[in-house]
Specification:
The protein has 484 residues and is of the alpha/beta class. It has 13 helices and 22 strands. Helix 1 packs parallel to helix 11 and helix 5 crosses helix 6. Bound molecules: NADP nicotinamide-adenine-dinucleotide phosphate.
């Protein structure tokens, strides 16, 4: 009898999802290599080191379910604590020994019935599976504002922070009021000589106080892991079940109630009526990703801080020129202007069956069957890929469910004596059509602009009830797959 074929995996990316995939794949008894373009693990938490960087998803939820952490210091963990956590997990599972650091993967090509994976150094390896754990908020988006290069001071994107630049007492400007811009403001406005926040669209800001876990509480979690599990599960229900359902209801009363709480906070905390009105959003809460902050309103009212809502005309040598003709002189200009969320694995060149390139498959928009697999690209699997639930959720749990699905698919194939699977054209097309249709009834399409929508106004997220995602991820419907 021929020996059983044990599939091997190339995991692209050594961030949260790549580390997770490696742990789960090893647990299932398979071999893998992680390809990490940088010299260390950590993904988005290695790249985002801006002052104030933190995770507004509660730390006990933003943890692997198999590596809950009794030692989180805060409800909203700092970026550096999160980075330490992920690196600690990678170290615990000795993942570095199975990782190729320092080169990006440039090409994945389906040849015969395996993937050929090539990195930037020209190293080529063969694998049965490719796991794309490359993240979604990965490629910084520079604003299309005239004169960016003319600025004589220091300028950088939040995800490319230049730590050599002195900040205390400087004239700092920040463009963008998404989660990153708000966190930077919380930290930097009090430290700056002058601080100018350029806001194009006001945000709903949910006031959630920061909580510090005492040493006593942490010791209690260490002594009683079941309490940690209970807390994790409660948070999971709260975030994924009700929040996940509410975003599908543009008339959500729950969100209307949360909107009232935000408005009350705005009205009570912002003293200057002009500033207050500038900060008041005129679209539905949760249409854009909800911003959560404990210090934004205090910081933007620091005596040296100002909010500018006149549109930016251009960047000049000395600062930012706005439509009212004013030049806002700056030493440091921070671009908190978000990410190219449609890039996914690109610019990597992915070539599937019959030489079809991923860019051809995605000529209209990035899409994936159930957010995880692609027709014509066998054994190519996304974690947090196109159409996956993102937003105010924990991407970790999402990736855990997706991993579970992948490993069940691998199991199904092996039991049936097959080597590969990809969704049929029909199953993928039908799923995408349903996903796009369902997107029309979500809160995301009620009249705001955000990175949740593509350039045609179609949500790039999971547009169905969150429960459907969990159900789908319990295992593949093999009738939707072509196998070989
Ligand atoms: P973002 O949400 O895409 O926000 C970009 C900001 O830049 C927006 O305020 C946008 O204004 C503004 N902007 C872009 N181009 C501009 C231009 N040409 N002129 C003026 N303003 C411009 O990006 P982000 O803040 O980096 O956040 C991205 C995502 O990362 C978040 O939604 C979240 O999922 C994740 N994140 C999470 C956390 C966390 O704590 N969990 C923290 C940070 C980031 P408009 O609103 O008018 O478009």
């Amino acid at each position: 009898m021929a020996p059983e074929h044990k599939p091997s995996f190339a995991i692209i990316g050594g961030g949260m999802a790549g580390i997770l995939a490696a742990v789960k794949i090893r647990e299932a008894g398979y071999d893998f290599t992680i390809f990490e373009k940088a010299d260390s693990f950590g993904g988005t938490w290695r790249e985002n080191t801006y002052p104030g960087v933190a995770c507004d998803v509660p730390s006990h939820l933003y943890s692997y379910s198999f590596a809950l952490n009794p030692d989180w210091k805060y409800l909203s963990a700092s970026g550096s604590d999160i980075l330490d956590y992920f690196r600690g997990v990678a170290e615990h599972y000795e993942l570095a020994a199975s990782t190729r650091f320092g080169q990006p993967v440039t090409r994945c090509e389906w040849i015969g019935d395996r993937w050929e994976v090539e990195d930037g150094a020209g190293h080529v390896g063969q694998f049965d599976w490719v796991v794309a754990a490359t993240g979604i908020l990965h490629h910084p988006k520079m604003p299309d504002i005239e004169g960016l290069d003319d600025f004589a001071g220091s300028s950088f994107h939040t995800a490319r922070w230049d730590h050599s630049v002195e900040l205390d007492g400087k004239r700092i400007g920040v463009i963008g009021t998404g989660s990153s811009g708000v966190q930077v403001t919380g930290e930097l406005a009090p430290r700056a000589g002058s601080f100018t926040l350029f806001q194009r669209t006001p945000q709903w800001v949910l006031p959630v106080p920061q909580i510090e876990y005492t040493e006593e509480e942490r010791a209690d979690f260490r002594a009683h892991p079941e309490k940690l599990e209970q807390l994790h599960d409660e948070m999971d229900r709260e975030f994924h079940s009700w929040f996940g359902e509410e975003v599908l209801n543009p008339e959500s009363e729950v969100f209307a109630g949360m909107g009232d709480a935000c408005t009350n906070k705005l009205d009570s905390d912002i003293e200057d009526p002009v500033l207050r009105e500038k900060l008041r959003p005129d679209y539905k809460l949760a249409c854009k990703r909800l911003v959560i902050s404990h210090n934004f309103y205090d910081s933007i009212q620091a005596p040296q801080a100002k909010l500018v809502t006149d549109s930016i005309v251009r960047i000049e040598e000395k600062g930012v020129r706005t439509a009212d003709g004013q030049l806002h002189e700056l030493d440091v200009l921070v671009l908190a202007t978000g990410f190219h969320v449609d890039a996914f694995v690109r610019p990597m060149n992915v070539i599937g069956q019959d030489g079809v390139e991923l860019d051809e498959l995605w000529s209209e928009r990035p899409s994936a069957y159930l957010s995880v697999t692609l027709p014509g690209f066998p054994n190519f699997f996304f974690l947090n890929g196109p159409g996956s639930p993102v937003g105010n959720f924990s991407l970790i749990l999402t990736a855990e469910w997706e991993c579970q699905y992948m490993l069940r698919l691998v199991e199904e194939l092996s039991e049936a004596g097959h080597r590969w699977a990809c969704p049929s054209e029909q199953a993928a097309t039908q799923f995408e059509a349903e996903r796009v249709e369902a997107g029309k009834d979500t809160i995301w399409t009620t009249g705001c602009k955000s990175w949740y929508l593509d350039d045609r106004g179609v949500p790039i997220l999971w547009t169905f009830p969150f429960e459907r995602f969990r159900e789908e991820m319990t295992g593949p419907k093999m009738q939707d797959y072509a196998v070989g």
